[in-house]
Amino acid sequence: MPPYTNVHRAFLQACSNHGTMSKEQAFNMYIAICAQHDSNHLIPAEKDLDQVVEAINERIYRFDQKIVLTHYEPTDMDFYVFVSLQESPVDLQLNAFTAPELHYFRVLLRELTLSEDHTLAVITCLNLTMDTVSEGAKPLAKMRAEQLLQEWEQLGYFLTLDDKCYLGPKAVVEFEKYINKNFADVVTRCCLCNVTIFYGVRCASCPQILHKDCLKKYLRRLTNCPACKNLWTVPM
């Protein structure tokens, strides 16, 4: 087994600090780290980063942590996401925020999960601050809610796109078990990969929704919907 080096430690630290990095951003970070810590002066390749992530995961799995490479449907991009594998309350994942702020996070997570297409208008998200009111307390200020959305988007928990808010790549990966446990009646799985699906392509003939990447591979071989068997007509 190759040695665990300062390159591994520095890349783990970068993933932990950023929470979520696009594949391109992560690779550029890896190149910079190699230039600083690797005395071999070899030009890094993407497959080298795969090996580095694998070695890191072997070390951190015992701490219920993992770096996951995931494809995020709303932006059609790949992301490296640093996640906790604990099936635990949201409070343990976001311990840098106040109780009302954490409650607002849970409300956002709940409402995005329960919405039909797992999106909400940004203004609707800001209006959810009224759901943070407790007896004798004021609701979370909307200005603070805007700041929180920006902070949580930087960490990858949410995404704002065209005035809509989505579950971000980190939320999709890190809270999959939490969402399945608490909202089992509203989440579904892609029938091709059996992974929980939040965003994808819906069949024109039935309610089935599939990951775009899964469907692209499937349509190379077959032309019918894998669920209803009717001809697939939705453009990719």
UniProtKB/TrEMBL annotation:
EC number: 2.3.2.27
Record protein name field: Non-structural maintenance of chromosomes element 1 homolog
Presence of keyword Cell membrane: no
InterPro entries with a match to the protein in the record: Nse1, Nse1_RING_C4HC3-type, PKC_DAG/PE, WH-like_DNA-bd_sf, Znf_RING, Znf_RING/FYVE/PHD
Domain of life the protein comes from: Eukaryota
A GO molecular-function annotation: zinc ion binding
Catalysed reactions, as listed in the record: S-ubiquitinyl-[E2 ubiquitin-conjugating enzyme]-L-cysteine + [acceptor protein]-L-lysine = [E2 ubiquitin-conjugating enzyme]-L-cysteine + N(6)-ubiquitinyl-[acceptor protein]-L-lysine
Record keywords: Chromosome, DNA damage, DNA recombination, DNA repair, Metal-binding, Nucleus, Transferase, Ubl conjugation, Ubl conjugation pathway, Zinc, Zinc-finger
GO biological process: double-strand break repair via homologous recombination
All copies of domain Phorbol-ester/DAG-type, residue ranges: 175-225
Similarity-based family: Belongs to the NSE1 family.
Stretches of the chain forming a coiled coil according to its record: none
Location(s) in or outside the cell: Chromosome; Nucleus
Assembly description: Component of the Smc5-Smc6 complex.
A cellular-component GO term for this protein: nucleus
Domain RING-type: 190-229
